[in-house]
Design goal:
The chain has 252 residues and is of the alpha+beta class. The chain contains four helices and ten strands. It has helices at residues 2-16, 30-63, 79-108, 232-247; strands at residues 116-123, 126-133, 136-142, 157-161, 165-172, 177-181, 186-190, 196-201, 206-212, 224-230. A five-stranded mixed beta sheet has the order 3-2-1-5-8. A five-stranded mixed beta sheet has the order 4-10-9-6-7, with helices on one face. Helix 1 (2-16) packs antiparallel against helix 2 (30-63) and helix 2 (30-63) runs antiparallel to helix 3. The relative contact order is 0.14.
Length: 252
């Protein structure tokens, strides 16, 4: 009993630390930070409720254990206690619902004029990234399809600028896929005949792994890509070079 209580207190202390992510990767976007805070807050609430429950159990074991064969006083009900244990769960659920709805609205919010728009097309078994300006494709990265039961080719790279609002529009040509970059702490289905979209603002430079998170066929596990976050200047150069290649009749 004591060891279980000690473990619970240790876990609660670890949860309160700002550096503890409780199994989630380090977020690289504004939206990911919000999801991490919601996750941490949920664990803090869970440990708080668990602490109260364990405290009541220990209190009952220590102070209300059987001391004789005499029948203890019998009561039919205790109205204040019944109101308390009915109202408290509703309050907890309402608080969790409020913060969940607030953060969901923040993460799913889209703007009228994002700085970057990328059309992402998932297909068996790779990805295509088309960069749009005024509705026209100015750069395109096409992954090589994985041959059935063959080796995985080089991963296509989706390049985006840090500090800019990026809108991702998701398309599928065959079956349902799922766009997932674990470092974004977010994933979204890629569905045939329907355009899903979301926005994010990256805060950290680097290259991050991405993959399909929906079982989509025999080589689903090889449907990989990378998200590369660069400076705005590097992104502008990437787009300029791609425009030149398209103008010359080549591809990127």
């Amino acid at each position: 009993m004591k060891s279980a209580g000690a473990l619970g207190l240790l876990a609660l202390a670890a949860t309160g630390c700002s550096g503890s992510r409780l199994g989630l990767p380090e977020p690289i976007s504004v939206q990911g930070e919000r999801m991490l805070h919601l996750w941490q807050g949920s664990w803090i609430a869970a440990f708080a409720v668990g602490g109260v429950v364990w405290g009541l159990i220990i209190w009952a074991v220590l102070f209300h254990r059987k001391r004789s064969d005499d029948l203890p006083p019998q009561v039919r009900y205790n109205l204040p206690i019944e109101i308390l244990y009915t109202a408290v769960p509703f309050v907890i659920i309402a608080v969790l619902f409020y913060f969940t709805a607030r953060d969901e609205n923040f993460v799913e919010k889209t703007t009228d004029d994002p700085a970057v728009v990328v059309d992402v097309t998932g297909f068996q078994w790779s990805w295509q990234f088309d960069y749009k300006e005024n509705g026209k494709t100015v750069a395109s990265v096409v992954g090589q399809p994985v041959a059935p039961n063959g080796p995985a080719p080089a991963k296509p790279v989706m390049t985006i600028p840090a500090g800019k609002t990026v809108r991702v529009k998701l398309h599928a040509n065959d079956v349902i896929h799922s766009f997932w970059v674990p470092a974004l702490i977010y994933k979204k289905d890629v569905m045939p005949g329907y355009v899903n979209e979301f926005e994010f603002t990256a805060t950290k430079l680097g290259t991050y792994e991405g993959r399909c998170a929906e079982l989509c066929g025999v080589d689903h596990s090889k449907m990989l890509f990378q998200l590369k976050v660069v400076t705005p200047e590097q992104y502008d150069k990437f787009i300029a070079d791609s425009k030149q290649a398209l103008a010359a009749g080549g591809g990127k």
